[in-house]
């Protein structure tokens, strides 16, 4: 590998935004036929770096080389013309158009009078699709494809140009295991063709399975590049966060109270079925499973956002019907939703108003909102949760992810719920806030809250839970106590392999 | 995937089913209620209907393009009026005095040019300022209408040129000039949207603008071209209509944008862009015109037409939503 | 003295731009014609803006909730015609509540369609524009509506009367603006309107009844329209059935000029009032300058686009859009 020229070399790239040095002297190379992982916490600068590579941002310093040649990416088109292709995490497809039109978007073959050359288009597309060995053809409407197949369309797009470097941004986020296998096959084909690949992912097992080298960013700074075979998960984590993250097993124990929430035989069509579990006061129950296992949907049902078709929900031993979030709130159930920006916050509103939104009807003085009482609530939870903001007037859209999440948590704690459901509590927030939130969840349990934590991160579930409910495809496969759970048995249970069904 | 396909098939075919229903209803109801002895589905009546559909229909084809593109144009009625004034007034300008009947093509071109420029101006503003097309064209709807009134106050602008009237009233293969224009524009925009790179890009931009930008499509100029096209078609509509009538009131074309948008939405174009086609829009135009004529045929007045069309527009929206509901498992947000 | 950074200037402009523009306009017009800023003239402008203004107050709620209302013009024609017709039939004392009830029914119907059925508000209110116009024509039989005894009715007080030396339409406008301004800025309901318009999903996830909130916004809009219709009817004591035609767009222009975003979640009643006054004073100022009446439309066009453009330019920190 040493004598070959890198397909892509970044030399001391600097990018600043007003007040922030987003990228600070970042340098690394991608060799032909190499799968090069790029890792870092959210906000470490990965996406800024990719935008520089894709010509969406211009760097303020440093240079990009392809082979020996210094290149300037004036825009997305130019990056593409030079053979740099992106497979985006969020699919950027036009659903109403055909597969072929999406693959050749922006460069449909022309005939006279500006006509599309359909024959050529279909022919070229089918040739690529054949290489990918997919089960749809050029004329299929993209909106009719599954998410995984839509991703295949994105990948097919990469193959239309003479790609020198392909950048995969979290490509497996929404793929099933079988679909991942297909994706990894495609990557190894590209690799065999001498294409350089940048692979951005948080998932350690994938990183160790398919990459050759790993470069790490932290706070916009380049931390170094290591050979995958020479490193360990621990040392990578340490490079990413700058210190050791405490993700030991949950060790704290306290007395559990009565059963606060019980679910019996709850079913909702294909989403989940025959789900039964209990959550006691003082207990954190972790829900672990793959995306689509039905965990979020159960939470939504408990919060009155989704009707169950059958089954019972009991609060403090009494059967209840929850038809709307207002019902749920009134009965002492709170939900910190999974999508913070889409579901948790009104980004254009200030911190105080967001925090008191669910109780605005109760915080009144005469016909008006009692703003003094609101500020008092905000101050109380700002101090308790250590929310860093210049003041309550700040729009939440301007806060960091961790502080935003604390606003959402504060919003629901201020309702004094008896059951607190937290869906993906630390998705997309920095490591510091992450461990604070973990600590908080344990503290809340100790204070007697019944807490349900839904998470897709195994270390997190192991760290915070007293018991772990493993779900697969809408069913509870097994419930573990924190003493008996092992990583292997947990993985087996959520993959639908073995594991006896027990509640 | 199945219900999705079904709802799309229904959306594409529904407008024609609706037209058939209208025909049956008005034929049957007409035989009891009509004041005239003439049958509703009379051949001449249908030809007349096509001709009367032309002014709205021609603009609606442009609106389909603009709405599929993810924009909207509220200024078409005002553009229509300006183009009409340019058409009629320019024929009286002294500099063209020596041209004789050759003034007609000159006036036509001038009128079409003005329409195109007004459309392009909307597009340029949308492109360069980044202000939403709804607001931009809401503004120019007022502005362009103001220009119309500034020209001649509340007075009509008139000029009759008999050669022109003869041309406009001519028939070719049994179809009136206006009908031919409508069919030609429909075919032209169909070709543009279904067959050309520009047209396919219009869908891509309306469907997923960011994806289009990432794919290197130059969205700004693209949208400006589409606004220029709808401006051109608004002017063409005026040219076709006023060649025959020879007199334009400053209020003419008012509420055209509403009729046009109604036709386009009835024809199945998605309000948020990315989906729709001119064949559906053609159906929408015909359906509205049928309704107007049919209600007239059974003795209802214009007030009923307004009432019925408004309610039908809402009903279509409601049906579309019902067809797209995924069932009981849906999240209640 | 601290120097202002470009960004700070930008943010001040973004927040108070419309107020600054208003002041500049007033000064410019006053210099051009001293008559402009006299009490008489100001009264006459505000009085003639009152109908538009009252309607704009209601539409502000609808727009902040993330929706549109294009039906207010034809709804205003409806209430004007209805109240004039009922005036002679059942007397003004009964006619007014009856007209309000009928207009509120229309508002409730739209609120049901947009709020509870979640239909696209642009198309629904476009349809209602046409439908209500048809309803009005049917109701009036296509005839103009006139009160028989124009001299002998107290009904004219809403449009023509004065109290404390101030014309009643102005008083109604001010009172409604104060009431609705407080409702929007200070009450739980107002907070919910902002939340629903800012992020409807997040509002739902916070237990806010989204459908009901939108529904009430349309009811408020209808109540404002009914009030505007009352002023209109009372001022003229007779009316064509197209009296409100086209007003929906002027109303929307005033609301947008006030800085409410069509995406919802932003705007205030106070800024809408400024938007209404700007439109009114421009019209008046141009006339006083001896310019043709219709040039106001062209000026309004330019001002709307400039206002919205500068607003979003300040937010994105760049004058020109990033569209390629």
UniProtKB/TrEMBL annotation, chain A:
Q: Which domain of life is it from?
A: Bacteria
Query: Which cellular compartments is it found in?
Result: Cell membrane
List residues of the ABC transporter domain: 8-244, 254-498
Instruction: Please verify whether the record's keywords include Membrane.
Output: yes
Q: What Pfam families has UniProt attached to this entry? A: ABC_tran
Which residues does UniProt call coiled coil?
Answer: none
Per UniProt, the keywords (alphabetical) are:
ATP-binding, Cell membrane, Membrane, Nucleotide-binding, Repeat, Sugar transport, Translocase, Transport
Q: How does it sit in the membrane?
A: Peripheral membrane protein
**Keyword Lipoprotein on entry:** no
Please provide one cellular component term from the Gene Ontology annotations of this protein.
Answer: plasma membrane
Supply one GO molecular-function term.
ATP hydrolysis activity
Listed SUPFAM superfamilies: P-loop containing nucleoside triphosphate hydrolases
- Protein name per Swiss-Prot or TrEMBL: ATP-binding cassette domain-containing protein
Organism per entry? Kangsaoukella pontilimi
Automatic annotation (TrEMBL), chain B:
GO MF annotations in UniProt: transmembrane transporter activity
Membrane topology label: Multi-pass membrane protein
Q: Give the chief site where it resides.
A: membrane
Keyword annotations of the record: Cell inner membrane, Cell membrane, Membrane, Transmembrane, Transmembrane helix, Transport
Q: Where in the cell is it found?
A: Cell membrane
Naming one, the record's GO cellular component terms include: plasma membrane
Q: Where are the transmembrane segments?
A: 12-35, 47-68, 75-96, 102-121, 133-152, 172-193, 224-243, 258-291, 298-319
State the protein's purpose: Part of the ABC transporter complex LsrABCD involved in autoinducer 2 (AI-2) import. Probably responsible for the translocation of the substrate across the membrane.
Quaternary structure? The complex is composed of two ATP-binding proteins (LsrA), two transmembrane proteins (LsrC and LsrD) and a solute-binding protein (LsrB).
- The name of this protein is Autoinducer 2 import system permease protein LsrD
UniProtKB/TrEMBL annotation, chain C:
Localization, per the record, is: Cell membrane
Q: What Pfam family does this protein match (any one)?
A: BPD_transp_2
Q: Name one GO molecular function term.
A: transmembrane transporter activity
- Top-rank lineage group of the source organism: Bacteria
Q: Mind telling me which residue stretches traverse the membrane in this protein? A: 12-31, 51-72, 93-116, 122-142, 163-185, 213-231, 251-282, 294-314
Name the chain's protein.
ABC transporter permease
Q: Which InterPro entries match?
A: ABC_transp_permease (IPR001851)
Q: Which UniProt keywords apply?
A: Cell inner membrane, Cell membrane, Membrane, Transmembrane, Transmembrane helix, Transport
Topology in the membrane? Multi-pass membrane protein
Please give the GO cellular component terms listed in this UniProt entry. Answer: plasma membrane
């Amino acid at each position: 590998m040493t004598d070959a020229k890198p397909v892509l070399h970044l030399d001391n790239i600097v990018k600043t935004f007003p007040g922030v040095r987003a990228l600070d002297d970042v340098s690394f190379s991608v060799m032909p036929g190499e799968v090069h992982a790029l890792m870092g916490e959210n906000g470490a600068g990965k996406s800024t770096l990719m935008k520089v590579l894709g010509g969406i941002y211009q760097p303020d310093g440093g240079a990009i080389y392809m082979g020996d040649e210094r290149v300037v990416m004036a825009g997305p088109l130019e990056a593409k013309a030079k053979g740099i292709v992106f497979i985006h995490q969020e699919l950027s497809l036009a659903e109403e158009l055909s597969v072929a039109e999406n693959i050749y978007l922006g460069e449909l073959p022309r005939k006279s009078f500006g006509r599309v050359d359909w024959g050529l288009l279909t022919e070229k597309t089918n040739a690529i699709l054949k290489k990918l060995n997919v089960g749809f053809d050029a004329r299929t409407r993209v909106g009719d494809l599954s998410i995984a197949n839509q991703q295949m369309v994105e990948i097919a797009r990469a193959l239309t140009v003479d790609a020198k470097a392909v950048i995969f941004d979290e490509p497996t986020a929404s793929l099933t295991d079988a679909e991942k296998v297909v994706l990894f096959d495609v990557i190894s084909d590209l690799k065999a063709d001498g294409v350089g690949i940048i692979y951005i992912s948080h998932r350690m097992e994938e990183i160790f399975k398919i990459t050759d080298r790993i470069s790490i960013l932290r706070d916009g700074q380049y931390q170094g590049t290591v050979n995958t075979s020479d490193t360990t998960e621990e040392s990578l984590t340490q490079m990413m966060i700058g210190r050791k993250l405490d993700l030991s097993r949950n060790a704290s124990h306290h007395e559990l109270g009565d059963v606060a929430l019980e679910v019996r035989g709850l079913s909702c069509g294909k989403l989940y079925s025959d789900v039964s579990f209990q959550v006691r006061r003082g207990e954190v129950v972790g829900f672990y499973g793959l995306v689509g296992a039905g965990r979020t949907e159960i939470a939504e049902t408990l919060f009155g956002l989704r009707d169950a078709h059958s089954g019972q929900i009991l609060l403090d031993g009494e059967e209840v019907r929850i038809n709307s979030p207002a019902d749920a709130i009134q009965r002492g159930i709170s939900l910190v939703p999974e999508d913070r920006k889409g579901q948790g916050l009104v980004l254009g509103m200030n911190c105080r108003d967001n925090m008191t939104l669910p109780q605005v009807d109760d915080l009144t003085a005469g016909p008006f909102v009692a703003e003094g009482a609101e500020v008092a609530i905000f101050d109380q939870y700002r101090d308790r949760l250590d929310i860093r903001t210049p003041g309550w007037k700040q729009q939440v859209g301007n806060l960091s992810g961790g502080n935003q999440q604390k606003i959402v948590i504060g919003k629901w704690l201020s309702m004094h719920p008896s059951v607190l459901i937290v869906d993906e509590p630390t998705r997309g927030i920095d490591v510091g806030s992450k461990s604070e939130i973990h600590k908080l969840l344990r503290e809340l349990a100790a204070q007697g809250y019944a807490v349900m934590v839904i998470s897709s991160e195994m270390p997190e579930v192991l760290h915070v839970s007293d018991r772990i409910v493993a779900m697969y495809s809408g069913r509870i496969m097994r419930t573990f106590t924190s003493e008996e759970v092992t990583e292997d048995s947990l993985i087996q249970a959520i993959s639908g392999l073995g594991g006896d069904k027990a509640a | 995937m199945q219900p999705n396909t079904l709802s799309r098939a229904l959306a594409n075919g529904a407008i024609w089913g609706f037209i058939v229903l209208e025909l049956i209803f008005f034929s049957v109801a007409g035989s009891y209620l009509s004041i005239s002895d003439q049958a509703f589905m009379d051949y001449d009546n249908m030809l007349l209907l096509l001709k009367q559909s032309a002014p709205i229909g021609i603009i609606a084809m442009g609106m389909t393009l603009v709405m599929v593109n993810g924009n909207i144009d509220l200024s078409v009625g005002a553009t229509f009026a300006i183009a009409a004034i340019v058409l009629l007034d320019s024929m009286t300008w002294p500099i063209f005095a020596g041209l004789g009947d050759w003034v007609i093509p000159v006036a036509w071109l001038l009128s079409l040019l003005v329409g195109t420029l007004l459309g392009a101006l909307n597009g340029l503003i949308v492109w360069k300022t980044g202000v939403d097309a709804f607001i931009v064209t809401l503004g120019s709807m007022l502005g362009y209408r103001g220009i119309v009134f500034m020209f001649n106050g509340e007075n009509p602008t008139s000029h009759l040129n008999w050669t022109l009237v003869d041309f406009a009233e001519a028939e070719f293969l049994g179809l009136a000039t206006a009908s031919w224009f409508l069919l030609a524009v429909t075919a032209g925009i169909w070709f543009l949207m279904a067959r050309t790179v520009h047209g396919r890009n219009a869908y891509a931009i309306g469907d997923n603008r960011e994806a289009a930008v990432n794919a290197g499509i130059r969205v700004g100029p693209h949208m400006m071209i589409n606004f220029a096209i709808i401006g051109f078609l608004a002017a063409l509509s005026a040219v076709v209509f006023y060649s025959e009538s020879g007199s334009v009131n400053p209020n003419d074309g008012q509420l055209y944008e509403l009729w046009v948008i109604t036709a386009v939405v009835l024809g199945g174009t998605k309000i948020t862009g990315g989906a729709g086609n001119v064949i559906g829009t053609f159906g929408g135009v015909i359906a509205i015109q049928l309704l107007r004529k049919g209600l007239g045929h059974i003795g209802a007045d214009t007030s009923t037409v307004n009432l019925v069309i408004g309610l039908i527009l809402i009903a279509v929206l409601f049906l579309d939503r019902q067809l797209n509901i995924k069932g009981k498992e849906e999240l209640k947000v | 003295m601290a120097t202002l950074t470009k960004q700070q200037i930008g943010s001040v402009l973004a927040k108070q731009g419309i107020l600054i523009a208003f002041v500049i306009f007033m000064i410019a017009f006053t210099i051009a014609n001293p008559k402009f800023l006299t009490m008489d003239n100001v009264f006459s402008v505000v009085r003639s803006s009152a109908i538009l203004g009252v309607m704009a107050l209601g539409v502000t709620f609808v727009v902040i909730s993330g929706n549109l209302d294009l039906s207010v013009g034809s709804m205003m024609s409806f209430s004007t015609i209805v109240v004039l017709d009922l005036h002679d039939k059942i007397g003004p004392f009964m006619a007014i509540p009856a007209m309000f009830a009928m207009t509120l029914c229309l508002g409730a119907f739209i609120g049901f369609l947009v709020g509870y059925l979640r239909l696209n508000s642009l198309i629904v209110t476009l349809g209602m524009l046409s439908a209500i116009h048809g309803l009005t024509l049917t109701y009036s039989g296509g005839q103009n509506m006139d009160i028989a005894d124009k001299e002998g009715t107290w009904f004219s007080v809403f449009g023509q009367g004065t109290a404390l030396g101030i014309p009643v339409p102005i008083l109604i406008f001010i009172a409604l603006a104060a009431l609705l301004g407080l409702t929007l800025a200070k009450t739980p309901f107002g907070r919910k309107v902002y939340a629903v318009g800012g992020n409807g999903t997040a509002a739902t996830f916070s237990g806010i009844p989204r459908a009901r909130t939108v529904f009430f916004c349309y009811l408020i809009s209808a109540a404002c329209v009914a009030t505007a219709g009352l002023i209109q009817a009372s001022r003229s004591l007779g009316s064509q059935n197209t009296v409100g035609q086209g007003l929906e767009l002027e109303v929307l222009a005033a609301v947008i000029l006030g800085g409410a975003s069509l995406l919802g979640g932003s705007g205030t009643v106070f800024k809408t009032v400024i938007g209404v006054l700007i439109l009114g004073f421009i019209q008046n100022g141009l006339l006083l300058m001896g310019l043709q009446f219709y040039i106001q439309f062209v000026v309004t066009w330019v001002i709307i686009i400039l206002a919205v453009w500068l607003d979003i330019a300040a937010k994105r920190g760049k004058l020109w859009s990033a569209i390629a």
